[in-house]
Amino acid sequence: MTRSELIELLSIDDPKALQRLFARTQVVQSSVVGTKVFLRGLIEYSNRCRKNCYYCGIRGGNRRVGRYELTDGEVLQAVDFAWRNRYGSIVLQSGERQSARFVSRIARLLRQIKEHTHGEVGITLSCGEQPDEVYRQWFEAGAHRYLLRIETASPALYARLHPATPAHDFDARITALHQLKAIGYRTGTGVMIGLPFQTPGDLADDLLFFRRMDVAMVGMGPYLEHRDTPLYRYKDRLLPPAQRLTLALKMVAALRLLMPHINIAATTALQALHPTGREQALQAGANVFMPNLTPVEYRASYRLYDSKPCLHESPGLCMDCTACRIRLAGNEIGYGEWGDR
Ligand code: 5AD
Ligand code: SF4
Ligand code: FES
Question: Is the Cβ–Cβ distance between 219 and 265 less than 8 Å?
Protein backbone atom coordinates (compact mmCIF):
# COMPACT_ATOMS: atom_id res chain seq x y z
CA MET A 1 0.00 0.00 0.00
CA THR A 2 1.18 3.47 -0.81
CA ARG A 3 1.11 6.50 1.47
CA SER A 4 -1.93 7.93 -0.26
CA GLU A 5 -3.78 4.60 -0.11
CA LEU A 6 -3.09 4.48 3.60
CA ILE A 7 -4.37 8.01 4.07
CA GLU A 8 -7.50 7.04 2.17
CA LEU A 9 -8.01 3.97 4.36
CA LEU A 10 -7.56 6.05 7.52
CA SER A 11 -10.21 8.49 6.38
CA ILE A 12 -12.97 5.89 5.89
CA ASP A 13 -15.93 6.92 8.02
CA ASP A 14 -18.92 5.21 6.43
CA PRO A 15 -19.96 2.43 8.89
CA LYS A 16 -20.56 -0.08 6.08
CA ALA A 17 -17.16 0.58 4.55
CA LEU A 18 -15.57 0.22 7.98
CA GLN A 19 -17.25 -3.14 8.47
CA ARG A 20 -15.93 -4.27 5.10
CA LEU A 21 -12.44 -3.17 6.11
CA PHE A 22 -12.53 -5.12 9.37
CA ALA A 23 -13.97 -8.16 7.59
CA ARG A 24 -11.01 -7.99 5.21
CA THR A 25 -8.48 -7.81 8.02
CA GLN A 26 -10.18 -10.76 9.75
CA VAL A 27 -9.64 -12.86 6.65
CA VAL A 28 -5.98 -11.87 6.44
CA GLN A 29 -5.51 -12.44 10.15
CA SER A 30 -7.11 -15.88 10.31
CA SER A 31 -5.31 -17.12 7.22
CA VAL A 32 -1.87 -15.71 8.11
CA VAL A 33 -1.53 -15.65 11.90
CA GLY A 34 -4.63 -17.60 12.97
CA THR A 35 -7.21 -16.61 15.54
CA LYS A 36 -5.01 -17.19 18.58
CA VAL A 37 -4.42 -14.34 20.98
CA PHE A 38 -1.23 -14.35 23.05
CA LEU A 39 -1.06 -13.09 26.62
CA ARG A 40 1.74 -10.91 27.93
CA GLY A 41 1.29 -10.11 31.61
CA LEU A 42 2.22 -6.50 32.25
CA ILE A 43 4.27 -5.67 35.34
CA GLU A 44 4.61 -1.93 35.91
CA TYR A 45 7.89 -2.20 37.74
CA SER A 46 8.58 1.43 38.65
CA ASN A 47 7.15 4.87 37.82
CA ARG A 48 10.41 6.71 38.37
CA CYS A 49 11.44 8.39 35.15
CA ARG A 50 14.23 10.71 34.08
CA LYS A 51 12.25 12.00 31.13
CA ASN A 52 9.65 14.70 30.70
CA CYS A 53 7.52 13.71 27.72
CA TYR A 54 4.80 16.36 27.44
CA TYR A 55 1.96 13.82 27.25
CA CYS A 56 2.82 11.46 30.08
CA GLY A 57 1.40 11.51 33.60
CA ILE A 58 4.49 10.01 35.24
CA ARG A 59 6.96 12.41 33.61
CA GLY A 60 9.83 13.17 35.98
CA GLY A 61 8.63 16.76 36.44
CA ASN A 62 5.23 15.78 37.80
CA ARG A 63 5.56 16.33 41.54
CA ARG A 64 2.05 15.10 42.26
CA VAL A 65 2.94 11.45 41.67
CA GLY A 66 4.14 9.28 44.54
CA ARG A 67 7.11 7.31 43.19
CA TYR A 68 7.51 3.58 43.72
CA GLU A 69 9.56 0.60 42.75
CA LEU A 70 8.41 -3.00 43.22
CA THR A 71 10.47 -5.27 45.44
CA ASP A 72 12.05 -8.41 43.96
CA GLY A 73 9.48 -10.41 45.91
CA GLU A 74 6.58 -8.49 44.36
CA VAL A 75 7.96 -8.96 40.85
CA LEU A 76 8.54 -12.67 41.35
CA GLN A 77 5.09 -13.11 42.80
CA ALA A 78 3.56 -11.50 39.70
CA VAL A 79 5.75 -13.68 37.47
CA ASP A 80 4.73 -16.77 39.40
CA PHE A 81 1.07 -15.85 38.87
CA ALA A 82 1.67 -15.49 35.13
CA TRP A 83 3.57 -18.75 34.91
CA ARG A 84 1.01 -20.78 36.89
CA ASN A 85 -1.77 -19.40 34.75
CA ARG A 86 0.14 -20.25 31.57
CA TYR A 87 0.64 -16.74 30.28
CA GLY A 88 3.20 -17.19 27.53
CA SER A 89 5.20 -14.18 28.62
CA ILE A 90 5.53 -11.15 30.81
CA VAL A 91 6.43 -7.53 30.10
CA LEU A 92 8.58 -5.69 32.60
CA GLN A 93 7.88 -2.02 32.06
CA SER A 94 9.22 1.02 33.84
CA GLY A 95 9.95 4.70 33.47
CA GLU A 96 13.35 5.43 31.96
CA ARG A 97 16.08 5.07 34.56
CA GLN A 98 19.77 4.68 33.97
CA SER A 99 21.46 4.29 37.36
CA ALA A 100 23.91 1.42 37.72
CA ARG A 101 21.77 0.10 40.54
CA PHE A 102 18.68 -0.01 38.33
CA VAL A 103 20.54 -1.70 35.49
CA SER A 104 21.94 -4.42 37.71
CA ARG A 105 18.62 -4.95 39.50
CA ILE A 106 16.85 -5.57 36.21
CA ALA A 107 19.61 -7.98 35.14
CA ARG A 108 19.32 -9.85 38.43
CA LEU A 109 15.53 -10.02 38.14
CA LEU A 110 15.78 -11.37 34.61
CA ARG A 111 17.99 -14.22 35.82
CA GLN A 112 15.66 -14.92 38.74
CA ILE A 113 12.60 -14.99 36.48
CA LYS A 114 14.29 -17.40 34.07
CA GLU A 115 15.32 -19.64 36.92
CA HIS A 116 11.95 -19.56 38.67
CA THR A 117 9.99 -20.43 35.53
CA HIS A 118 12.58 -22.91 34.13
CA GLY A 119 12.94 -20.60 31.16
CA GLU A 120 9.33 -21.11 30.19
CA VAL A 121 8.08 -17.55 30.44
CA GLY A 122 9.18 -15.20 27.66
CA ILE A 123 10.40 -11.82 28.88
CA THR A 124 9.78 -8.51 27.17
CA LEU A 125 11.47 -5.40 28.51
CA SER A 126 10.08 -1.91 28.14
CA CYS A 127 12.50 0.29 30.05
CA GLY A 128 13.20 3.10 27.63
CA GLU A 129 16.43 4.18 25.98
CA GLN A 130 19.60 2.66 27.37
CA PRO A 131 23.25 2.47 26.32
CA ASP A 132 23.99 -0.36 23.90
CA GLU A 133 25.94 -2.31 26.54
CA VAL A 134 22.92 -2.26 28.86
CA TYR A 135 20.70 -3.70 26.15
CA ARG A 136 23.34 -6.41 25.68
CA GLN A 137 23.61 -7.15 29.38
CA TRP A 138 19.84 -7.55 29.70
CA PHE A 139 19.67 -9.71 26.58
CA GLU A 140 22.30 -12.04 27.99
CA ALA A 141 20.39 -12.13 31.29
CA GLY A 142 17.32 -13.51 29.53
CA ALA A 143 15.19 -10.78 27.95
CA HIS A 144 14.38 -11.62 24.36
CA ARG A 145 11.97 -8.87 23.34
CA TYR A 146 12.18 -5.13 23.77
CA LEU A 147 9.44 -2.57 23.32
CA LEU A 148 10.43 0.99 22.55
CA ARG A 149 7.76 3.15 21.01
CA ILE A 150 8.86 5.76 18.52
CA GLU A 151 5.69 7.65 19.61
CA THR A 152 5.51 9.28 16.17
CA ALA A 153 7.62 8.74 13.07
CA SER A 154 7.49 12.45 12.29
CA PRO A 155 10.57 14.26 13.64
CA ALA A 156 8.64 17.56 13.61
CA LEU A 157 5.76 16.18 15.66
CA TYR A 158 8.21 14.37 17.95
CA ALA A 159 9.83 17.72 18.69
CA ARG A 160 6.47 19.21 19.70
CA LEU A 161 5.78 16.37 22.12
CA HIS A 162 9.12 16.38 23.93
CA PRO A 163 11.46 18.94 25.49
CA ALA A 164 14.45 19.91 23.34
CA THR A 165 17.08 18.10 25.40
CA PRO A 166 19.54 15.35 24.42
CA ALA A 167 17.48 12.88 26.49
CA HIS A 168 14.51 13.40 24.15
CA ASP A 169 16.19 13.09 20.77
CA PHE A 170 14.34 11.57 17.83
CA ASP A 171 17.47 10.28 16.08
CA ALA A 172 18.71 8.67 19.28
CA ARG A 173 15.46 6.76 19.47
CA ILE A 174 15.87 5.45 15.93
CA THR A 175 19.45 4.45 16.73
CA ALA A 176 18.20 2.60 19.81
CA LEU A 177 15.74 0.59 17.71
CA HIS A 178 18.53 -0.40 15.30
CA GLN A 179 20.76 -1.41 18.21
CA LEU A 180 18.06 -3.57 19.76
CA LYS A 181 17.50 -5.37 16.48
CA ALA A 182 21.23 -5.87 15.91
CA ILE A 183 21.61 -7.46 19.36
CA GLY A 184 18.92 -9.96 18.47
CA TYR A 185 15.92 -8.72 20.41
CA ARG A 186 12.51 -9.23 18.86
CA THR A 187 11.93 -5.54 18.68
CA GLY A 188 8.63 -3.76 19.05
CA THR A 189 7.69 -0.17 18.63
CA GLY A 190 4.54 1.90 18.44
CA VAL A 191 2.89 5.27 18.34
CA MET A 192 0.08 7.27 19.88
CA ILE A 193 -2.97 7.99 17.75
CA GLY A 194 -5.02 11.16 17.84
CA LEU A 195 -2.30 13.42 19.21
CA PRO A 196 -2.72 17.17 18.98
CA PHE A 197 -1.16 18.46 15.72
CA GLN A 198 -1.10 14.93 14.22
CA THR A 199 -2.30 14.59 10.62
CA PRO A 200 -3.50 11.54 8.65
CA GLY A 201 -0.24 11.83 6.70
CA ASP A 202 1.72 11.48 9.95
CA LEU A 203 -0.19 8.29 10.77
CA ALA A 204 0.42 6.87 7.29
CA ASP A 205 4.11 7.63 7.81
CA ASP A 206 3.98 5.78 11.15
CA LEU A 207 2.70 2.67 9.38
CA LEU A 208 5.35 2.92 6.69
CA PHE A 209 7.97 3.38 9.40
CA PHE A 210 6.93 0.09 11.03
CA ARG A 211 7.34 -1.65 7.71
CA ARG A 212 10.66 -0.01 6.91
CA MET A 213 12.03 -0.98 10.35
CA ASP A 214 10.58 -4.47 9.87
CA VAL A 215 9.63 -4.70 13.54
CA ALA A 216 8.24 -7.89 15.08
CA MET A 217 5.51 -6.22 17.10
CA VAL A 218 3.63 -2.98 17.46
CA GLY A 219 1.74 -1.50 20.38
CA MET A 220 -0.21 1.57 19.50
CA GLY A 221 -3.12 3.21 21.19
CA PRO A 222 -5.07 6.42 21.36
CA TYR A 223 -3.49 9.44 23.00
CA LEU A 224 -5.40 10.25 26.20
CA GLU A 225 -5.22 13.40 28.25
CA HIS A 226 -3.54 13.69 31.64
CA ARG A 227 -4.35 16.89 33.53
CA ASP A 228 -0.90 17.36 35.04
CA THR A 229 0.94 17.45 31.73
CA PRO A 230 1.88 20.28 29.35
CA LEU A 231 -0.09 18.76 26.46
CA TYR A 232 -3.32 18.98 28.43
CA ARG A 233 -3.85 22.53 27.28
CA TYR A 234 -4.63 21.26 23.78
CA LYS A 235 -7.42 18.96 24.96
CA ASP A 236 -10.03 20.91 23.02
CA ARG A 237 -8.27 20.13 19.74
CA LEU A 238 -8.60 16.37 20.09
CA LEU A 239 -10.98 14.08 18.22
CA PRO A 240 -13.98 13.10 20.38
CA PRO A 241 -13.47 9.69 22.08
CA ALA A 242 -15.62 7.65 19.66
CA GLN A 243 -13.76 9.01 16.62
CA ARG A 244 -10.39 8.62 18.29
CA LEU A 245 -11.21 4.97 18.97
CA THR A 246 -12.28 4.40 15.37
CA LEU A 247 -9.09 6.01 14.11
CA ALA A 248 -7.05 3.71 16.35
CA LEU A 249 -8.96 0.67 15.05
CA LYS A 250 -8.31 1.77 11.47
CA MET A 251 -4.59 2.00 12.27
CA VAL A 252 -4.70 -1.59 13.58
CA ALA A 253 -6.53 -2.76 10.46
CA ALA A 254 -4.16 -0.92 8.13
CA LEU A 255 -1.13 -2.43 9.86
CA ARG A 256 -2.56 -5.95 9.65
CA LEU A 257 -2.94 -5.48 5.90
CA LEU A 258 0.46 -3.87 5.52
CA MET A 259 2.38 -6.39 7.67
CA PRO A 260 0.23 -9.55 7.86
CA HIS A 261 2.66 -11.51 10.11
CA ILE A 262 3.30 -8.89 12.76
CA ASN A 263 2.19 -9.09 16.40
CA ILE A 264 -0.22 -6.26 17.20
CA ALA A 265 -1.27 -5.46 20.76
CA ALA A 266 -4.82 -4.58 21.74
CA THR A 267 -3.60 -1.84 24.09
CA THR A 268 -5.05 -0.76 27.41
CA ALA A 269 -5.59 2.80 26.17
CA LEU A 270 -8.26 1.44 23.79
CA GLN A 271 -10.16 0.14 26.79
CA ALA A 272 -9.94 3.57 28.41
CA LEU A 273 -11.84 5.06 25.46
CA HIS A 274 -14.51 2.37 25.36
CA PRO A 275 -15.26 -0.64 27.62
CA THR A 276 -14.90 -3.01 24.65
CA GLY A 277 -12.12 -1.09 22.91
CA ARG A 278 -9.61 -3.94 23.14
CA GLU A 279 -12.07 -6.55 21.84
CA GLN A 280 -12.85 -4.27 18.93
CA ALA A 281 -9.12 -4.14 18.23
CA LEU A 282 -9.00 -7.97 18.13
CA GLN A 283 -11.68 -7.81 15.49
CA ALA A 284 -9.76 -5.17 13.57
CA GLY A 285 -6.54 -7.20 13.44
CA ALA A 286 -4.78 -7.24 16.84
CA ASN A 287 -3.56 -10.56 18.31
CA VAL A 288 -1.82 -9.74 21.61
CA PHE A 289 -3.40 -8.86 24.98
CA MET A 290 -1.54 -7.51 27.97
CA PRO A 291 -3.45 -8.17 31.19
CA ASN A 292 -2.20 -6.07 34.09
CA LEU A 293 -0.25 -8.00 36.74
CA THR A 294 0.89 -5.03 38.82
CA PRO A 295 -0.11 -5.34 42.49
CA VAL A 296 -3.28 -3.26 42.93
CA GLU A 297 -1.78 -0.81 45.42
CA TYR A 298 0.61 0.59 42.78
CA ARG A 299 -1.68 0.83 39.79
CA ALA A 300 -2.92 4.36 40.36
CA SER A 301 0.68 5.59 40.61
CA TYR A 302 1.49 4.28 37.13
CA ARG A 303 -1.02 6.51 35.48
CA LEU A 304 0.16 7.66 32.06
CA TYR A 305 -3.27 9.19 31.36
CA ASP A 306 -6.23 10.15 33.56
CA SER A 307 -8.70 7.47 32.51
CA LYS A 308 -6.54 4.39 33.14
CA PRO A 309 -8.81 1.35 33.61
CA CYS A 310 -8.49 -1.54 36.12
CA LEU A 311 -7.07 0.59 38.93
CA HIS A 312 -8.70 -1.56 41.58
CA GLU A 313 -9.06 -4.94 39.89
CA SER A 314 -6.69 -7.66 41.09
CA PRO A 315 -4.50 -9.65 38.67
CA GLY A 316 -6.89 -12.58 39.11
CA LEU A 317 -9.89 -10.50 38.19
CA CYS A 318 -8.19 -8.98 35.14
CA MET A 319 -7.17 -12.47 34.07
CA ASP A 320 -10.70 -13.89 34.19
CA CYS A 321 -12.10 -10.76 32.59
CA THR A 322 -9.49 -10.92 29.82
CA ALA A 323 -10.19 -14.60 29.09
CA CYS A 324 -13.91 -13.85 28.82
CA ARG A 325 -13.38 -10.89 26.57
CA ILE A 326 -11.10 -12.78 24.20
CA ARG A 327 -13.59 -15.63 23.87
CA LEU A 328 -16.46 -13.21 23.36
CA ALA A 329 -14.50 -11.62 20.54
CA GLY A 330 -14.39 -15.08 18.92
CA ASN A 331 -10.70 -15.79 19.52
CA GLU A 332 -8.87 -18.47 21.47
CA ILE A 333 -5.98 -17.94 23.88
CA GLY A 334 -2.52 -19.26 23.04
CA TYR A 335 -1.88 -20.53 26.57
CA GLY A 336 1.73 -21.16 27.44
CA GLU A 337 2.98 -19.92 24.06
CA TRP A 338 5.48 -17.13 23.54
CA GLY A 339 3.75 -16.20 20.35
CA ASP A 340 6.84 -15.23 18.34
CA ARG A 341 6.95 -15.76 14.64
N1 5AD B 1 -1.86 8.69 26.34
C2 5AD B 1 -1.66 7.54 25.70
N3 5AD B 1 -0.50 6.86 25.76
C4 5AD B 1 0.49 7.37 26.51
N5 5AD B 1 1.73 6.95 26.75
C6 5AD B 1 2.34 7.82 27.59
N7 5AD B 1 1.50 8.82 27.89
C8 5AD B 1 0.33 8.56 27.24
C9 5AD B 1 -0.90 9.24 27.12
N10 5AD B 1 -1.13 10.39 27.76
C11 5AD B 1 2.31 5.78 26.09
C12 5AD B 1 3.56 6.14 25.31
C13 5AD B 1 4.64 5.33 26.00
C14 5AD B 1 3.85 4.20 26.60
C15 5AD B 1 4.53 3.51 27.73
O16 5AD B 1 2.67 4.81 27.03
O17 5AD B 1 3.41 5.73 23.97
O18 5AD B 1 5.62 4.84 25.12
FE1 SF4 C 1 8.97 8.57 31.07
FE2 SF4 C 1 7.95 6.90 29.20
FE3 SF4 C 1 6.39 8.70 30.45
FE4 SF4 C 1 8.22 9.56 28.66
S5 SF4 C 1 6.41 8.23 28.22
S6 SF4 C 1 7.84 10.46 30.70
S7 SF4 C 1 9.89 8.09 29.04
S8 SF4 C 1 7.43 6.96 31.40
FE1 FES D 1 -8.97 -5.64 34.32
FE2 FES D 1 -11.25 -6.35 32.86
S3 FES D 1 -9.13 -6.35 32.26
S4 FES D 1 -11.01 -5.95 35.05
Answer: yes
